[in-house]
């Protein structure tokens, strides 16, 4: 599970994340919504241990993200924004590298690697260097590295960005499929995605939490019953 | 330790994934041989040793080392993979060390590939091979010190060219601090103890011994301390600025 308490990030006077408190339980898929620059990625980066909070705390499965960072990272699978990668590596070589860092060994390692390659349909490109792949493949390589160690908690920053409708559907199915026993946070600005995979959604604007509800509950807030209208009214 | 080895392996392999590594190696070897045989007059001086080669080596390092170290962190920053790497269950120090050792191994390979010069002097005469080995080991430590400087400058920027030039500058200053041109200038205004202090900080002062095949523990300690200092500095910089 994920917990944050008064999580705040201040970039030299620019308040990117402002006093954010929320928690996500196993079995939940939390949609993290907000306009560009609202602080979604900054929050995710803090939870993933990439940047240090200015104040406040967060924890992954009970491990504090600052004082117990390694243990927190071990429980976490993380897809950074834009799915960065090592372009000169082959897909297979890259996933081997991540499996090494995650300490996967023996038969378990092989079955996990086989699973992600199959599930994300990466088998045909396993020997290709990542630089030569299309955007959709690159994104799926990023997803593969996030789930290869079967983490309890998944944080995915725009996991379907740049995918075609078929691939989007595939990724959503995958998320729903593994969601049962996991804690998942996905950021997106595709509102239909919230309906498709999320059990709950929070909306942030200018670093502050402005709504926290189920997709149905959010929709009920607008007379039109459309998520888009709710989003516009609270995020503006 | 295992984590450091994993990062080292990936990093070293990535050197050879692009032609740049081969170009750097070829240029280094061409220059090393040119300096040793032409400018160093390896044949003409009629002595079976590698002094001409080792004398020019620190100057060759000014080009080789920054070229090897410039990409260490600048490239990770530019393409964002630094975020991927540092959100794995590893510490920043492990990442800094893994990358440093990969660069060091690469320079070790470059040094090893100068073996034809060594074969030449052995063919022509009877050099003191123990002294030559000592000089090689010493040269490897000098490279370690310089590479740590390069790791540091690469951690400052996402621009590899800036990382290259800064590393070159800092290494140059470290190199000439003990050189007459450097100390003379200090002598004009600074007290004697200061001049000697600066001179003792120079790689060249320490390298004089190393060339002669004397591998003094104090020199090795000096190179190592410089390396550790700049690697720690890399860690501090990355911790503060990794997301920028």
Give the DSSP E fraction of chain B (strand runs of 2 or more residues). under 5%
Number of helices of chain A: 9
Oligomeric status: heterodimer
| Total number of beta strands of chain A | 10
Global Rg of chain A: 18 Å
* Arithmetic mean of pLDDT of chain A: 91
Strand content of chain A: 25-35%
What are the secondary-structure elements of chain A, in order, as H or E? Answer: EEEHEEHEHHHEHEHEEHH
Mean pLDDT of chain B: 88
Shape of chain A: globular
Measure the end-to-end span of chain A.
30 Å
User: Which segments of chain B are poorly predicted (pLDDT under 50) over 5 or more consecutive residues?
Assistant: none
Give the helix level of chain B as a range of percent: over 70%
Output the structural class of chain B: mainly alpha
Largest sheet of chain B: none
Numbering strands along the chain, what is their spatial order in the largest sheet of chain A?
Answer: 6-7-8-3-9-10
The low-confidence runs of chain A, each spanning 5 or more residues with pLDDT under 50, are none
Summarize the structure in words:
The complex is a heterodimer of chains A (about 240) and B (about 240). By secondary structure, chain A is an alpha/beta fold. Chain A is built from 9 helices and 10 strands. In chain A, β7 (about 155), α6 (about 165-180) and β8 (about 185) form a beta-alpha-beta unit. Chain A is globular, with a radius of gyration of 18 Å. The mean pLDDT of chain A is about 90. Chain B has helices at about 1-15, 20-40, 50-70, 70-80, 80-85, 90-110, 115-125, 130-155, 160-175, 180-185, 190-200, 205-210, 215-240. In chain B, α3 (about 50-70) packs parallel to α8. Chains A and B meet through α2 and α3 of A and α1 and α5 of B.
């Amino acid at each position: 599970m994920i917990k944050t308490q008064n999580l705040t990030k201040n970039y030299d006077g620019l308040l990117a994340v402002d006093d954010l408190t929320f928690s996500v339980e196993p079995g939940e898929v939390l949609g993290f919504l907000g306009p560009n620059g609202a602080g979604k990625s900054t929050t995710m980066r803090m939870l993933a241990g990439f940047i240090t909070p200015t104040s406040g705390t967060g924890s992954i499965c009970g491990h504090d993200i600052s004082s117990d960072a390694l243990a927190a990272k071990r429980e976490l699978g993380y897809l950074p924004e834009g799915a960065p990668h090592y372009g000169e590596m082959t897909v297979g070589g890259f996933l081997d590298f991540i499996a090494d860092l995650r300490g996967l060994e023996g038969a378990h390692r092989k079955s996990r690697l086989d699973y992600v390659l199959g599930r994300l349909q990466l088998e045909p490109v396993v020997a290709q260097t990542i630089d030569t792949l299309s955007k959709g493949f690159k994104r799926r390589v990023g997803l593969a590295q996030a789930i290869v160690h079967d983490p309890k908690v998944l944080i995915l920053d725009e996991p379907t960005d740049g995918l075609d409708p078929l691939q989007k559907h595939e990724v959503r199915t995958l998320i729903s499929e593994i969601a049962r026993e996991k804690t998942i946070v996905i950021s997106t600005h595709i509102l239909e995605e919230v309906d498709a995979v999320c059990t709950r959604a929070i909306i942030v604007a200018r670093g502050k939490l402005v709504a926290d509800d189920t997709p149905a509950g959010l929709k009920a807030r607008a007379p039109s019953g459309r998520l888009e209208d709710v989003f516009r009214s609270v995020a503006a | 330790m295992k984590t450091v080895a994993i990062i080292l392996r990936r990093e070293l392999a990535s050197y050879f994934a692009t032609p740049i590594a081969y170009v750097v190696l070829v240029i280094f070897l061409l220059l090393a041989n040119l300096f040793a045989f032409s400018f160093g007059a390896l044949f003409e001086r009629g002595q079976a040793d590698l002094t001409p080669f080792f004398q020019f080596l620190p100057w060759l390092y000014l080009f080789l080392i920054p070229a090897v170290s410039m990409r260490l962190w600048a490239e990770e920053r530019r393409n964002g993979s630094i975020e991927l790497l540092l959100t794995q269950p590893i510490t920043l120090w492990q990442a800094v060390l893994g990358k440093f050792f990969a660069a060091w191994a690469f320079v070790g390979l470059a040094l090893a590939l100068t073996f034809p010069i060594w074969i030449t002097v052995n063919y022509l005469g009877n050099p003191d091979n123990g002294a030559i080995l000592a000089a090689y080991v010493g040269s490897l430590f000098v490279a370690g010190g310089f590479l740590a400087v390069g790791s540091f400058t690469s951690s400052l920027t996402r621009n590899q060219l800036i990382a290259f030039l800064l590393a070159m500058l800092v290494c140059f200053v470290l190199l000439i601090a003990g050189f007459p041109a450097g100390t003379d200038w200090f002598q004009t205004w600074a007290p004697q103890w200061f001049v000697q202090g600066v001179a003792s900080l120079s790689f060249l002062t320490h390298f004089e011994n190393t060339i002669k095949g004397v591998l003094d523990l104090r020199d090795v300690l000096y190179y190592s301390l410089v390396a550790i200092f700049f690697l720690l500095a890399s860690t501090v910089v990355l911790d503060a600025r990794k997301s920028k």
